[in-house]
């Protein structure tokens, strides 16, 4: 049975209730005390933060308040420079400034009338903005929509020099935004290759291909405003883009540009191109096209040298104008195709020789035509060449001989070799827009038909890109190496560290070295007095090559492309040049041969490179064999001081690539290459001789005057050499705001009013912050 609960007395009940109340009161006092301690602790923390870190936390809080009184702008980085192989600038970016006026603050009581007047006068005087226009911006009446605006762009794209002039006057309510301005100093120079950036952000050429390296990282400019009397600018600087160095030789490019523009003037073709390439490595030395355009103003018809487009421009509607410009900007060397004609014949002969289908001793009879059932295919020399050797067949560009050769080779072998030489696939060149032309080649089923096979032997009935044909032709005569052509040799960051490096790449072997040597020697006959390319010959020089003429599109239209591919020299080929003239519209010139244009290009290259003749030379060519070209020594393993001495003695500029080092690891151009003093730059890749060696960081002296710069480098333990920069010489690392230093004599009062009459340093080699041994020669240039 459940136990009975003991009954408490009245006094016991009273005592129990009292004890319970005491317990509750103790808990309340404890909780109250805890909260008081917490509150005082929190106040202490707040006071500590306010006193010790208050300014910083306020700034952070303000930064988070982006209202109509504040702004947050992106600072565009300068795109990296694009340079030729010797360091000449082809594209560069400079920092410019936008002038911003805080109109609301300008009109507030915080700014005095005389300060307003002074500010407007400065803007009027320095920026040439009409006073009436400026007064309209700051008109203090309801009709002025800018009255409540804290951000108004008064002017944009202002140079650093002009911006500094305004800053020196300390105008009120003016602040600045950085921007970047892209410029192309040589205007139409290599316009398709270098490319440009449209206002909508669309990019072309190298600017597009290597955009990720060139772009850099954006910075940030934030204006923080707590009230109308206080404003603050916080700037996170941008990271500028990397420097892209091309394989292009500016001097060779200039030669080709001049000739391709001459073709445009004399023949008015739909298009024309001249490409020069290192035949053994695939490095592109020139990339010249007609018509071309000014990269600074690519849409401006006045800066476009297309005679046909200029003549009809005013009759075109906007859609047609846009279409015409897009066609003009397209890089025809990689994006357009043409029927190659006879310049393709050496490819067919190479394949037949390699397969043993023919030998160099075979002969061929040409009666002027060849029949395939009821289909007649004539030779271009309809009277017939008669009996001829293989070399004569190439020299005469005989169609009948080629048709016999491809028959002996067979369609299956021919199809295989056509693909082996790279037709129907992209070359892989580092440019945007390359096409494979695979859809314009005959299938193996089509080649079973004798007529298709016959027309292929003459380079007709299919199309290729200009870059494909020069690359395949090079393979036929360079020992059978199909190389990957390339435009960019290296990409370096601001510290000259290499971020990307392209080197010669062998795609595959096409034919044997022996077959290639046969073809190379045979093609010299093309430039013989009886050959089709005799107008390309230069006396005293062993040059090989091939002419080509091919109908384009419908045969009845009789629209031809004329071409010439040639190389120097036949016994040791180094450079190959292609000249393609697509459908000339000047009908007054009946047979527009590209051979004389090739000769003009090659003759200038011979002069530029100082290439000595191997035989008799016609003095009328006026080749100056005693020119200033110098041969580069092998500097690998040399100390930096020895290397600098050697190059200084030759008058050749140089740059060191690598953040630290004391010896030369490798160099570009390679040893033995001939270069022109004062127009060439040698890149020396440096490395440490050992981990323990003592290296010193090179101080920057750009902007200093000669005396001061010399002393700074001497004090740091280096050997400065000062030279005057040549007129027109383009230099890297040039300051845009040179500093003038003053001579300081002991115990002489200085008023800084009489600067030394010395020139400032505008370039130094090696770059500042490179770590090299003390005693290294530092080459300085003034202008």
Give the tags:
783 residues, alpha+beta, 7-stranded mixed beta sheet, 23% strand, elongated
Overview of the structural elements:
- This protein has 783 residues and is of the alpha+beta class.
- The strands form ten sheets. Strands 2, 3, 4, 5, 8, 16 and 17 form a seven-stranded mixed sheet that branches. Strands 10-9-21-20-19 form a five-stranded antiparallel sheet, sandwiched between helices.
- β2 (82-83) and β3 form a beta hairpin.
- α9 packs antiparallel against α21.
Q: Look at the structure and give the mean pLDDT.
A: 83
Helicity level: 25-40%
Shape: elongated
**CA(first)-CA(last) distance:** 119 Å
What structural class do you assign from the helix and strand content?
alpha+beta
Give the arrangement of secondary structure elements.
Blueprint: H1 10-63, E1 71-75, E2 82-83, E3 89-101, H2 103-106, H3 113-127, H4 131-137, E4 152-158, H5 160-168, E5 174-183, H6 191-194, H7 205-209, H8 211-214, E6 219-227, E7 230-236, E8 243-246, H9 250-267, E9 269-278, E10 284-290, H10 307-312, H11 318-329, H12 332-335, H13 345-355, E11 363-366, E12 369-372, E13 375-378, E14 386-389, H14 390-396, H15 399-409, H16 411-420, H17 444-447, H18 450-457, H19 466-477, E15 481-483, E16 488-492, E17 498-501, E18 506-509, H20 513-522, E19 543-552, E20 559-568, E21 575-584, H21 595-609, E22 630-631, H22 640-650, E23 653-657, E24 663-668, E25 674-675, E26 681-687, E27 696-697, H23 706-715, E28 719-724, E29 761-765, E30 771-772, E31 777-782
Parallel strand pairs: 2-8, 23-26, 28-31
Antiparallel strand pairs: 1-6, 2-3, 3-4, 3-5, 6-7, 8-16, 9-10, 9-21, 11-14, 12-13, 15-18, 16-17, 19-20, 20-21, 22-25, 24-26, 27-30, 29-31
Helix pairs in contact: 9-21, 13-15, 13-16, 15-18
